[in-house]
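Can't attach files on this board, so I'm pasting raw text. These are the components:
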Amino acid sequence: MSLKLEQLSYSYGDHKVYEIQALKDISLEIRSGEFVGVIGQTGSGKSTLMQMMNALEKPGEGKVFFHGQDVWAADFDRKGLRSKVGLVFQYPEHQLFESDVLSDVCFGPKNLGLSPQEAKKRAKEALALVGVEEACYKMSPFELSGGQRRRVAIAGVLAMEPEFLILDEPTAGLDPKGRDEILGQIALLHRQKGMGVILVSHSMEDVARYVERILVMDQGRLVYDGVPREIFARCEQLAQMGLAAPNVTYILHGLKEKGLQVDTDPVTVEEARDAILRALGREP
Amino acid sequence: MKIIHSENLGYEYQSVNEQGEVELAKQALSGINLDIEPGDFIAIVGPNGSGKSTLAKQFNAILTPTEGTLWVDGKDTAQEANTWEIRQNTGMVFQNPDNQIIAGVVEEDVGFGPENLGVPTEEIWKRVAECLKTVGMYRYRKHSPNKLSGGQKQRVAIAGVMAMKPKCIVMDEPTAMLDPNGRREVLQAADELNKKAHVTVILITHYMEEVVYADRVFVMDQGRIVMKGTPREIFSQVETLKKYSLDVPQVTMLAYELQKKGLPLPHGILTNRELIDEIVALARQEKKEPARPD
Amino acid sequence: MIRDITIGQYYPSESALHRLDPRVKIIGTLVYVISLFLFRNPAGLLVATLFLGFCIGLSKVPLSFIFKGVRAILVFLLITVVFNLFLVPGEPVLRIWKLTISREGIHTAVFTAIRLIYLIFGSSLMTLTTTPNHLTDGLERLLEPLRIIHVPAHEVAMMMSIALRFIPILLEETDKIMKAQTARGADFESGGLIRKVKGLVPLLVPLFISAFRRASDLALAMEARCYRGGKGRTKMNPLRYTAGDRIAYGVILLYLILLTVALRFT
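---
Top answer:
Structure tokens for the assembled complex are below.
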């Protein structure tokens, strides 16, 4: 049970001259139930990669397999795939179009051919999953706060009951509270429903806190693929790609340079705190 | 003279129904007393809906107080006769970089403000070149804004405001839609403006790392100013900030967590260097680790 | 990507034609287009061809760029030619099944085709050698005298330049929303006409909302930068006629004189 990309390449532009290679020879596999973070500078190919995963873009070369089946085979049901691999775009609240919250969330399930009753049932479940209260169901999306609107938009994808959920910077433009709420809900979905989550983010702190595996993209290539500790240990290489590790990593490295025997692997505040306490000979 | 001074400023949004009756009123600001000195770098932080954007629009007389008074450079914003002078003196940079660039060529956009002010042609060109150089966008002067990155677009917007020679620039969440590199570029441009051109900068944001270098910080919640002080004073109150659902920079958070575990660290640590030095000093004191001489 | 589409297809170069004041080019193009409908004889055609050739030569724009414009109207062109060939009555030349082609038909078809092609060539030449900003500037100045009869010249020009700036942004946005709705299972391709039109709602509603939001943001940003209409504004690029522009007007006049002379040869 997995999503697998094999030697994927993709370029756009009209002529050979203007051609921009967005993805170069990417191979990776994401298993069901994984929580994966994708980092990389703007323009590194992250968004294109996400669109490959649910067949919104067709690769120039290479193959995409969903549960072992080639998604670009003639008889493959790509519409069905898009419900199995849900993609939440950046600023997803911009796609809301219905006059009330519940109808908007029903849009996805209805497109899958479900009956209105079944669609409503799924929509309600999805809204409950992201923590939107019933009082909001009949409200216009524009009466909601920015954070709530975004959750409604995410529910619109969840209502299709995907096995994988891809989120492209789901916290962009939200305040710390909105950010923590959304990421908290996603982490909960991952834990409780065993949903595979692929999180694209610019915030290394968020990535360090939630994901169990990180993909690093640079200029259309997949340069690193590993657990957060491994990835963030390469501070210098990341800096060359215009990326950074979480700030605590730099503090630990700074301490080590000054001669303190401290573990430099931690990537979250709590881990760093314990490492420093240990280095000072105290009980964490 | 204070560049911005307000007394008991309040603002109420009203929506009027078809019969002309006030249907819904929302108190967006209340009891705001502000004093901002010329040349200051001020940060205003607060969660979404705390009224910080409404306050920003007051400085530029886009909105005027429904209660109390606001003086910008000594002029009462409520008096219509002052509006254009105030707008020239306090420039605004907005959140969405795409929606504030008017012209199809970078240099023409920077010239838009001076054109509106009736500045002579040669002078416009001089200002445009100067301002684009200050924000480091001079070599893109002939480009279309559509092909620039978010950070570059915001720098063009900043140049466009500077070209009007304001005394004060208000930036309303200029980094909210940018990636980390874009955020750094914009903050650098703002800092340059403040330090070199001595323009008063008011930065509105919800990224707490961005306020570390401000002279003073105002924290807003539910339309009121609930905390004010230097960044150090503000960040030494981690619990209060959490109450207003605000973050603290990761280094401050780490110091705070260590304090809770009994490490004798000072309050309100703001930079990595500070924390590293403090911990190394502690280690030496406790002689747990022989520190390398440096 | 979509953002790379250049509206008005400006071809950057440093030719004499590029340097001309946009007003000269707008007036010149207008004069030329009208003149195309004044002659029906080979001598007039010759003068019009020479003038066009002269301008194209001056512009240094590769011919392939100029031909591009014709490709867009090819179908229209063919239909016009076919209609003229078969429907203009006169001395029969050729008979195919029940249709006749007349001598007058051939004449009209050829002239109409040439006129249309020259019309496209002429106007493409203007847009290829003038940036959209210059075009709107030129238009604003030309319309200025009409202010007396309440033609809002400045406002029209401002609207045009804002539209030019936002068309690529909205195109990109369309692409994005379309993908986002496709990801939610929307189908923009299959189904009958009614289903297709209904299917556009999830695309058009967000697009309109976004356009209005952008418009209101932009209005705010313009006001914050002291915009209050055309009054009291100075110009960063004021239009001033130079010697070259006067010569160009002379050339246009010369063309008109030559054309009038040519009209006498029948």
